[in-house]
Design brief:
- This protein has a single domain, classed as Ribokinase (UDP-N-acetylmuramoyl-L-alanine:D-glutamate ligase), CATH 3.40.1190.
- Helices cover 37% and strands 24% of the residues.
- The protein is built from 11 helices and 13 strands.
- α1 packs across α9, α7 crosses α8 and α9 (259-272) packs antiparallel against α10.
- It starts with 10 loop residues before the first strand and ends with a helix.
C-alpha cells in the first residue's frame, strides 16, 4: 500500500528510515506520557517540509493504528508518502522518552519492526531517483542487515540520478557494536556530500577528543563537508576550504529530542534553496535551538517565519 505521488515530482529532499511512535514523559518521575511521533529521518523530513522544502519519505509501516497515524501525519505535513509500503506481518515501532538529572533517556520497542524489513528489492526507486537530495542515517543501517543494504542501494540509485547525499551517523550503540558501526559509517562517508554527526558520536567513531582531530578524521575517512553538531554550544562547519564554529543560541530548552534531526532537515532545506554551507548551518543551528523549546520530536519543529524572526532578534 502506498500513498499518492505528486505528478510533477522532483523532490527537494527524500529521506529513508524508520519512523517510531513516541511516548514522551512530560515530567521526570511521573507516569504521564505525551504521545507524539519520532524516528530520526521522519523528524528530519518533517522539519524540512515545514521550512519550505518539497519532501517525500521512504519506509515500511505496520498495518496498524500507529502506521495509519504516521500516514495521516505526513499528509498533514505535506510529506509525499508514495514511497511508503505497508507490511501486514510486522508492527510499527515505538519508543519511550524518560527525563531525569542526566537528561533524556530512550527505551525502544522496535525489534522486528516493519521498517527493519526494508530490502533493496522493494525500494521505490521512482521516488528516490526524483530526489535532489537523499537523506539517510546510521540508525537505518543499524536496525537490520537488509535495511543497511537498502540504505546503500538507495544511495547508489540517488547518486546515479544526480542527487546529493545527506548523512547523519546517529550512532546508537544499543543497536550495533562500535566496531561494526564504524566500519559501515566509514564505508558510507565517501558517498555523502554532507556528514552531520554529533560531537559525542564523532568522538566515539574517531577515537579523538579534540575538535580539530575529530574533524580531520571525518575528512580523512571521506567526508567532504562536515557539520559537527555540539548541542547548546552550536556547530562546527568544516570542508577543504573552511573550518568555522557557529555559536549556539540561548533558549528555554525543555526537551532536546529531535533537535539534531531538525538541524539536518533545516540544513538541507537551505542548501537546496541556494544557501552556502555556512549560511545553511547558521539557519539550521537556530532552527534546532527552537526545536528544544517544546516536548517531543515533531510538535516543536519550527516554521520558516519562526526561524527568520528568531535570527533577526538574535542579531540585535
Amino acid at each position: 500500500m502506498m500513498g499518492p505521488m505528486r505528478r510533477d515530482a522532483r523532490f527537494d529532499l527524500v529521506a529513508l528510515g524508520e519512523p517510531l511512535l513516541e511516548f514522551n514523559q512530560t515530567r521526570a518521575g511521573e507516569a504521564q506520557y505525551l504521545q507524539g511521533f519520532g524516528g530520526d529521518t521522519s523528524n528530519c523530513i518533517i522539519a524540512a517540509s515545514r521550512l519550505g522544502a518539497s519532501t517525500a519519505y521512504v519506509t515500511r509501516l505496520g498495518d496498524d493504528a500507529f502506521g495509519r497515524a504516521f500516514l495521516a501525519l505526513w499528509q498533514r505535513e505535506s510529506v509525499d508518502s508514495s514511497g511508503v509500503r505497508t507490511d501486514p506481518d510486522a508492527p510499527t515501532g515505538i519508543y519511550f522518552v524518560t527525563h531525569g538529572d542526566g537528561g533524556h533517556e530512550f527505551s525502544y520497542l522496535r525489534a522486528g519492526s516493519a521498517a527493519s524489513r526494508m530490502s533493496p528489492g522493494d525500494l521505490p526507486l521512482d521516488v528516490i531517483r526524483n530526489a535532489k537530495v537523499l537523506h539517510v542515517s546510521g540508525i537505518s543501517q543499524a536496525i537490520s542487515a537488509s535495511a543497511c543494504d537498502s540504505v546503500f542501494a538507495a544511495i547508489d540509485a540517488a547518486r546515479a540520478a544526480g542527487a546529493a547525499i545527506s548523512y547523519d551517523s546517529n550512532l546508537r550503540l544499543k543497536l550495533w557494536p562500535l566496531a561494526r558501526a564504524r566500519a559501515v559509517i566509514v564505508a558510507t562517508l565517501p558517498l555523502a556530500d554532507w556528514f552531520m554527526p554529533s560531537l559525542e558520536e564523532a568522538a566515539l567513531l574517531s577515537g579523538a577528543s579534540e575538535t580539530d582531530a575529530i574533524l580531520d578524521w571525518c575528512h580523512e575517512s571521506g567526508a567532504a563537508l562536515v557539520a559537527l553538531k555540539i548541542g547548546a554550544a552550536g556547530v562546527w562547519v568544516s570542508s577543504e576550504n573552511v573550518r568555522e564554529h557557529i555559536s549556539g543560541h540561548r533558549v528555554d530548552a525543555i526537551d532536546a529530542t529531535g533537535a539534531g534531526d531538525c538541524f539536518d532537515g533545516a540544513f538541507v532545506a537551505r542548501i537546496v534553496a541556494g544557501d552556502d554551507a555556512l549560511s545553511a548551518a547558521r539557519y539550521a543551528n537556530a532552527a534546532a535551538a527552537l526545536a528544544t523549546t517544546g516536548y517531543g520530536a515533531v510538535d516543536p519543529l519550527p516554521r520558516h517565519a519562526d526561524v527568520a524572526a528568531f535570527l533577526e532578534a538574535s542579531a540585535k
